[in-house]
Each structure stands twice: as C-alpha cells, then as structure tokens.
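User: My instructor asked us to take a sequence, write out its structure as tokens, and then describe one feature of it. I'm not sure where to start. Here is the sequence I was given:
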Amino acid sequence: MKKITVYCEVNHLNKKIADVSYELITKAYELTKKAFGLTNEEYIVEAIVLSDEIDDNSIKKTFAAGATNFVFVKNDCLSKFSQTVFAQCFVEYYIQSRPEIIIFPATPIGRIVAPRITTMLNTGLVADCTDLDFVVRENKMYFAPTRPTFGSELMATILSKTLPQCATVREKTFKAEFDKNIEGALCEFYPNSYEENRIKLVRSIFDKESSVNDFLNAKIVFVAGYGLADHRDKKYFLRLEEIAKIIGAKVGSTRKIVDLGIMGHEYQIGQTGSTVEADVYIAFGVSGAIQHVAGMKNCKTIVAINTDENAEIFNYADYKIVADAKMIIDELLEKLR
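Assistant: Let's start with the prediction itself. The structure tokens for your sequence are:
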C-alpha cells in the first residue's frame, strides 16, 4: 500500500494541529481516489505530527479529514520547533515508512523545514503550489503539483523523477472537509538519533510599530489594483481604506501596486503574497493576472470593477461592473460618510 504523507504543523502552545494541515489531508484523500481511478493503485493518507504531546481532538479530526494513519513522532526535544532537530526526526521516521509523496504546508515553519528535509532525502521540492493532481505519462502515474512560474505569468506542472515526490501548499488553497468515516490507526514513533539544535538565537529585534495584515479570517476583502494608481498617488488607496474601516473589511493589493511602492508587501494578495478565502472579495481596477488569481480564487463571492470589459478578472467574477473604480470609490465614500 502506497502512502501520501501530510506533514502536520502543530501549535506548540496549545498542542493543536493547525487548520492548514486538515486542508492538505482532505486534498490528499481526494488524490487517493484519483489514483485508484487512473491506474487502480491504492494509496492511503498518513498524517504525521512531531511534538512532545498532542491534543486528542486534533487526532480525531485528522481521521475525519481523510487520514488512514496518524503517526505521532514523539520526543521531549520536539516541545519547541527547531528546524534541524525536526528535520532529523522526520527523516529517521521516513527511513522506516518510505511514503511516495510528502505534502508540507507553505507556512513560515513549513518553508523552513521542507527544504531541509528534502535536501537530506536527496529529492526535489515543488514550492508554493496552487494545485495537486496525478497524471499518467507513458503508462506511468506521476504526482503532479502545479505552481506559477516565469514571473507568475504561466502555470507549470512539475513531475519529479525521484522519490519521495514533495510539495508545499499555502494555507486556504484547499478546503478542509470533515465528513470521512475512516477508522484510523494511531502509531507512535520515538526518534533517538537526533543532534542538538546547531542554530542559536543571537538577538531578537521586533518593531512594535509594524503590523501584519492578516487576511486569513477576513470576511470582506477590498483589493486595490493598478487601475487605482495615478502617478503613485495614494489618494484612492486611502479612500478605500476609509471605506473598509467603516464596514469592517480588509484592504489588499496586487503585486504591481507593491512594486510601485504605493503599498507594502503585507498588503499583497497572490502567489507571492497572501491567500484569501473571504466571503466577499471586491476588486477595484484589478486586471486579473495569474499570480494574483492564485491568491483569491477560493473566495465565495467575487465582484470585479474595471473599465476594460475584456479584463481577465471578469472570468473569475460572480458580479462584473464595467466602470471606473475610482468613481465607484467616490460614490461609496460619499454615501457612507
């Protein structure tokens, strides 16, 4: 029986599994069905956690999301995250388990530990994927992760020639579903060959004035596109932020706006920025480049405002408004003030 292993990230304060892990388990479960339909190959989903302890309810949720096996890699050294120690413990388990596919979350921790693990395993890694699939080439089935490339203007599906085949996926790319009726097996593994963490924190600097624009739980998101740019004047961005503050929305931007220096990177939505899954997403003067769409395609209701009736963003919109986004902002602000 072949395995798709999902590296589950743990909050080491409350010992609960992060939501992104359930999203990846659900997608991995879908892939097992796809594999059997293509070639009759049987895969199971294996959820793996590295920690000193874990919340019991989190374990149950992995089975409900689609995991057949839950592997608890347990050691006191795993009470706090250390990229070197975690990588060594994971690789020690991999040598015994040998999964064909490993999926990591593209979180700050996942982006640190995944490259280290894959380097130790002498295999490749497809980073920041927007989709995961299986394809058949010359009667052989391959794991097929897809990600934007060439300046985020094209989508590339990358097939690995080495095992394990590995990928990282950003939060909110897939939706977690807890409707699987699976009787899973709980296994414990005790690593013993790890070395002490060789990375030491010398100095910590934190700017109290800075703030992170957190889109993960935003219900309404306004996005400022290049259509609002006017010689790098921030007038309409400030107006959009005023409207957002009144109705409780978050404001984001496209990459072009960040590159112009009008808004900071923390506002950027897209493949190289944040991913949003809002109830309502409203695009003001957004063209709809592939890079940006990768970060907003899972929003429930998409409204697009653009003067170009052929703008790419309209292909993803539920509601299309062919108009000047600046005029719409002026009218909204006048009514709300």
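For the description part of your assignment, you could build on this observation: The mean pLDDT is 90. Try explaining in your own words what that tells you about the chain.
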